[in-house]
Amino acid sequence: MKIYNTLTKKKEEFVPITPGKVGIYVCGPTVYNFIHIGNARPMIVFDTLRRYFEYKGYEVNFVSNFTDVDDKIIKKANEEGVSCHEISERYIVECKKDMEGMNIKPATHHPKATEEIDGMIEMISSLIDQGYAYEKNGTVYFRTRQCEGYGKLSKKNLDDLSAGIRIAVSDEKDDPMDFVLWKPKKEGEPSWPSPWGDGRPGWHIECSVMSKKYVGETLDIHAGGEDLVFPHHENEIAQSECCNHTTFANYWMHNAFLNIDNKKMSKSAGNFFTVREISEKYSLQVIRFFMLSAHYRSPLNFSDTLVEAAKSSLERILNAVDNIRTMIDHLDGEELTEADKANVKVLTDLVKKYEDAMDDDLNTADAISAVFEIVKLANTTVKDGSKAYAQKLLSTITELCDILGIITEKKEEILDADIEALIEERQAARKAKDFKRADEIRDQLLEQGIVLKDTREGVKWSRA
Ligand code: AMP
Ligand code: ZN
């Protein structure tokens, strides 16, 4: 498999550190709200990468963190008058629900920053001992100029970078490019004891520590959105390589951004959507399929027209699968006929086309085209083939869809009367302020493809 490596700016043949195994670390979300539709892109893309490695027979150790201490979490906690822990735990639960809706497998490990403080203190101490970091008034800074090769991932040069920085008179750093590893406690903020006084970690150190603990000193693949290249990933490299004296990650993969109606998503521009909001309009399976319809390194535009198009495309695949399932019951022949064998040859070539696309830097767009060719083959040949051939087609399409995280299994249809009854129960639960039960019912319905909308005229529902 070839992977485009941000570090070398080239597509390179993937060679694992240990044959048959892959260690992947993906920077996860900061949990201060529901995840937004942009956050969903790296989740879907790198879950597909993991699934493809598994299909190829690799044992995958997939690690993705939750950043659960951060300015935005603190702000939200203060606004609501609750603890940061309450905020982060609430949104981790919600994030996991969205992930399940998008059929994203739980990571092998989902470490949380607040549970790894000891490891961070240990790494920061080691960096100080080795002369790569220094403390000033309770803040520990990383000494960027001490780090050989700083800027190699983002292709930035320290002199150019510092030329663009305005130095505050009060700046206590030895160099404007030095960055924070540990910051002192402020009133109303969570803090932990450390050799430099009570405080909390800077953002970058958590990933260096958690990736080392759960994957190893050298990662096969480190991934995330392209906005993380600088400074986050650059600083992770600096911390890890100066501390461990070995390569931090062999391959760096970055997804391009998701834009809304060709504009950058932002709260102030009013084009900011959470995955939860979108799930009221579209099935999250459609969203997943839409995300994979473009190559992960191309910017992707999110618009109703494009998502509707993805929805019809996905329906074409699911209808074909349904058709084959129905036909299997009416077909005979446990052996392939001569005509079947010729069709199986075409099928094998199309599977190869799919794999070639995925092997070419995870080109899911071309892989989906190969699935469509298989669907076309199925639609024209299954009715005249044997049962064995239909079964072969079905298992092939199902397997290829599964790599993309597309569920081809049809869910039991829930009856209108049952939906109405559950909605009534939810209303009663809300009235009784039993919001937990009300949410449970909403999630249960969502799982069955029923989307609820609270309107002024009451609760409306639709099938996604
Ligand atoms: P954050 O919670 O901001 O740290 O983001 C979590 C992940 O989502 C990171 O890998 C980001 O690069 C990624 N991300 C954030 N916004 C977008 C977007 N609009 N498109 C694609 N990826 C994004
Ligand atoms: Zn990170």
Describe this protein's structure:
The protein is 46% helix and 15% strand. The chain is an alpha/beta fold. The strands form five sheets. A four-stranded parallel beta sheet has the order 4-3-9-10, with helices on both faces. β5 and β6 (139-142) form a beta hairpin. α6 crosses α7. The longest helix has 25 residues, at 304-328. The protein is globular, with a radius of gyration of 25 Å. Zinc ion binds at residues 27, 207, 232, 236.
- Kindly report how far apart the N and C termini lie: 36 Å
Number of helices: 15
Which whole number gives the mean pLDDT? Answer: 94
**Shape assignment:** globular
Gyration radius (Cα, Å) is 25 Å
- Major pleated sheet: 4 strands, parallel
Helix-strand pattern, N to C? EEEHEHHHEEHEEHEHEEHHEHHHHHHEE
Query: In percent terms, what proportion of residues is strand?
Result: 5-15%
Supply the helix-strand structural class.
alpha/beta
Number of strands: 14
Read across the widest sheet, the strand sequence of neighbours is: 4-3-9-10
**Small ligands present:** adenosine monophosphate, zinc ion
Please specify the SSE layout and strand pairing.
Layout: E1 2-5, E2 10-13, E3 21-26, H1 40-55, E4 59-64, H2 71-80, H3 84-101, H4 117-129, E5 133-136, E6 139-142, H5 158-163, E7 179-184, E8 199-201, H6 204-214, E9 219-225, H7 229-244, E10 249-255, E11 258-260, H8 275-278, H9 284-292, E12 300-302, H10 304-328, H11 338-359, H12 364-381, H13 387-403, H14 416-431, H15 435-447, E13 450-455, E14 458-463
Parallel strand pairs: 3-4, 3-9, 9-10, 11-12
Antiparallel strand pairs: 1-2, 5-6, 6-7, 7-8, 13-14
Helix pairs in contact: 2-3, 4-6, 6-7, 9-10, 10-12, 10-13, 11-12, 11-13, 12-13, 14-15
This protein binds adenosine monophosphate (AMP) and zinc ion.
